[in-house]
Amino acid sequence: MQNNTVVITGIGLISSLGEGVDAHWKAFNDGLEPRIDSETFKPYAVHPLVEVDWNNQIPKRGDQRQMETWQRIGTYTAGLALQDAGIKDDESLCASMDMVVAAGGGERDVSVDTQILAEARVRNDIGTMLNEKLTTELRPTLFLAQLSNLLAGNISIVHKVTGSSRTFMGEEGSGISAIDTAVARIRSGQSTHALVGGSYNSQHPDMLLGYELNGMLKRDGWAPLWQREDSEGGGIVTGSGGAFLVLESAEHAQKRGARVYAAIDGIYSAQIRRSRDDLTQTVAKLIGAASADKAADLIISGASGAKHVTAVEKAAFDTFSSSAVRGVAGKLGHLREAQFPLVVALAALSVFNGSAFPPVDAKNEKAGPSSVNTALATSIGGTRSEGVARLVKV
Amino acid sequence: MSKYTDHLGRPLVAITGLGVVSSLGQGKEENWAALTSGTSGIHTITRFALDNLRTQIAGTVDFLEESTKGASALSQKLASLAAEEAVAQAGFPVDDFGGPLFLAAPPVELEWRNRFALDALVKSEGEPGYDLLLAACRRGPQEDMFNTAEFGYIAEVLADKFGTRGLPITLSTACASGATAIQLGVEAIRRGESDRVLSIGTDGSVSAEALIRFSLLSALSTHNEPAHKAAKPFSKDRDGFVMAEGSGAMVMESLESAVARGANVLGIMRGCGEKADDFHRTRSKPDGSPAIGAVRASLEDAGIEEGAIDYINAHGTSTPENDKMEYLALSTVFGDRISSLPVSSNKSMIGHTLTAAGAIEAVFSVLTIQTGTIPPTINYDNPDPAIVMDVVPNVKREASVSSVLSSSFGFGGQNTCLVMTAEPN
What we know:
heterodimer; A: 394 residues; alpha/beta; Peroxisomal Thiolase, Chain A, domain 1; 2 domains; 11-stranded mixed beta sheet; 3-stranded mixed beta sheet; 15 helices; 14 strands; 38% helix; 20% strand; B: 425 residues; two-stranded antiparallel sheet; 13 helices; 17% strand; globular; 3-oxoacyl-[acyl-carrier-protein] synthase II (chain A); 3-oxoacyl-[acyl-carrier-protein] synthase activity (chain A); PKS_Beta-ketoAc_synthase_dom (chain A); Thiolase-like (chain A)
């Protein structure tokens, strides 16, 4: 079996902070204030998506109409990643490219749902009423526009990536598994190049409901990521955005003269039973494993803000004295499925630039280091699944 | 090439445990008896009201306590039953499997019953809508409801119950999902990540809303009377698929480790192939090239010629589009031989089990190899003259089958095929 080096050659990013690699690097380095919408979904705050001209990556209006927002964000971001890697218009590279997408779903039709809730209050024949309303009011194409595997389907249609198409589900864990699987396949020679990532739309009440059923959202406006333990509600402020990566074997990248951001040296993941097992120890163990040879210079944390879990992650970091930490959800929100791809991308950028951007929450994050050759990226799920990636300079 | 590696020097993958649940019953024995006797599990739906519905039939699993508890609870139970059977057959401890879990599960949303229950909590506070549902949540956590809407929940429960290792993978590749779960397992064994894997496809998601969504895409049969005649793959009068539920589970191991521990090897998972379609969200590229590519990729991955395939367990959904395109793909790859090569569709009896289909049909493919019985395509009363295939019409057939191709094609351009053989070489 082969043991290929796996490198990142393309990054697509979009969020409340802007569009593209440079915009994000600049936003973090310039210490821009986070963009927050605290009004639309009061008492919840969200980080709204930057204004996007969808035509830039999804030229056909017909295609745009067939997607709900998270699919559109994902398809757009995938296009950015392909473009960044210089293979967007390379038909044969796209046709042989593998794809793993970390997907959610949802984004139901708010107006239809509201009508049904209203009818249900006044009718006794609920089943009949549901059939009546759903058959007459549901937009036929909505099903596909919110179906999990149709983000990948749309990427195939719009960007012609057709080597393979796999959609992983399961909140933060799906992002971890997606990158883990794509890396493992390239490392072992089962694949030469892959597109991997995810997207999330925070600006939809159905998506907020998914979290708030378990009381996980922060209810008193935005606060710095590491300072939410005493706030009202569950601590999470979600953000809209997407993150996609183009991964290749080093040999494949070199042959086509691609620019390399960083190598993914390892993915360390777990899913403990948190009611029983110790999360602090688990996180510390994963970071320990990822730092076995040498401590990383920087940790880009995907901490969601979820109370307790975020504090535990911080406590685990604090047992390692050397590394500087950056909690990026404090700046652009929690992107759930896309959170791990996002932090891996930002860690790769830090390694590529050889420097860390300034602390996002200066009270709780150390300045420095002077140079970055290795960086870790973490995503510890709000409810389950734990993952750490190690990025190294090539 | 040692006796434990394939043509590319990769570990051969043995199948050592199988489990299945469908509308035909629970367990391999019950299912196989019904399937080979041409019994249909399709029936008039009793789970929810049928007023205003053009399609009133499905292959729901109605015999479990969880059958009325919602998509998440039923999908979990179905997966659990199939996995118990598979793990027990393989001879591993049912609570300490010791390998990774790959779960194909339906993307489920918060059920209407739960939305109504939330609304009932806050009815007096204002107009109904999402604002009020969110206000209801602020009264206190609804953990049970939360779990039903979390995509990662079922795999977490199964991982805990069966003692699988690591972060389980939950996946969806639409109607190819079950096959993808198996493919991911095969790849993990070939990479040497584990000597055993548990792959499951499960789907218990038939609800009024799910049915209406497919109905609005004109994908479903409206042949409500008699229900058992509705699924008629490759027939001229086929008019759509029939939604159904079930689960298939497979324990796979490196052949070397299976032999070393003295396990009973049921078959070999020889090859997997896939190719995505970039043509349309629900329709295939007119030239069938992605499906053709997936079939060819699976044969190539298996290292066998098309002439070595004895039987094809078809996707055969009974939609006008799928069966036509599947025939185009198969006849392109297999040439003239397709008219005499047995090709049957389990969906004629169990319906389209969606996320579970690829896994259930892989289980039935291995049973075909083991028993030498090919299950029929029932309801084949009006052959489509444009599809010239031996569909094993209406009655099972005894035949020596040493290699099977199982195909799965799904919305979103998903095409995945599996090749299973009796022997390693």
